[in-house]
From TrEMBL:
Its main location: membrane. The chain crosses the membrane at residues 33-57, 63-83, 136-161. GO terms for biological process: sterol biosynthetic process. It is a multi-pass membrane protein. InterPro entries: ERG24_DHCR-like (IPR001171). This is Uncharacterized protein. Pfam families: ERG4_ERG24 (PF01222).
């Protein structure tokens, strides 16, 4: 329960550090505060986000091994870092431009002045989704492995974000044409490096 509470606290804290980045997301720009965001706020947040907490409370006598806790912490901080850092990298370029920005200590690179190919965006097209899935997986892992219900959240998020990555790719291919094909040769992965 301590890990569960800390993970959600960090999730919210890091969200509010650069809260204005939400105005530059796909949900706002392309879907105009659309169905996916409203569905997420009305279904995911009150119901699915709390499933793990309820499961932990109902199974309070179940103890987790130290290796399991360490693995959970590792997955959380790895996923959370990727999740936030990828979103913040793109946000900084959109908000402040690429002239003076640096990512990982290097000058920002853009493909034809339009598509970011520095940092995580030069590795994969939607690694922010990868980080988000790992973050939610670690939250589910706070309940152990004795039951599948706490894993509904990361599993359903994987399905939703895989479908969204596919839609994002279609939208970007239509918008950027040949340039998107060039970008895909640089950022070869959608969500899971070397797999998808």
């Amino acid at each position: 329960m301590i890990c569960y509470q800390i993970f959600w606290y960090l999730y919210l804290l890091t969200h509010y550090i650069k809260e204005d980045f939400m105005l530059w997301t796909f949900d706002i720009i392309e879907e105009h505060f659309g169905f996916m965001l409203v569905f997420g706020d009305l279904i995911y947040v009150p119901f699915l986000y709390s499933i793990v907490g309820w499961f932990i409370v109902d199974n309070i006598n179940q103890t987790l091994s130290i290796p399991w806790i360490l693995l959970t912490l590792l997955i959380h901080f790895f996923g959370h870092f990727i999740f936030r850092e990828t979103n913040w990298q793109k946000f900084e370029i959109r908000k402040h431009g690429s002239k003076n920005a640096k990512i990982w200590g290097e000058t920002v690179k853009l493909l034809d002045g339009k598509l970011l190919i520095s940092g995580f965006w030069g590795i994969g097209r939607h690694l922010n989704y990868t980080g988000e899935i790992f973050t939610y997986l670690s939250i589910a892992m706070c309940s152990g492995m004795t039951f599948w219900i706490p894993y509904i959240l990361p599993f359903s998020l994987f399905i939703l974000l895989s479908q969204r990555a596919f839609r994002d790719d279609q939208r970007c291919r239509k918008k950027y044409g040949q340039l998107w094909d060039e970008y895909c040769k640089i950022a070869t992965f959608r969500i899971i490096p070397f797999i998808y």
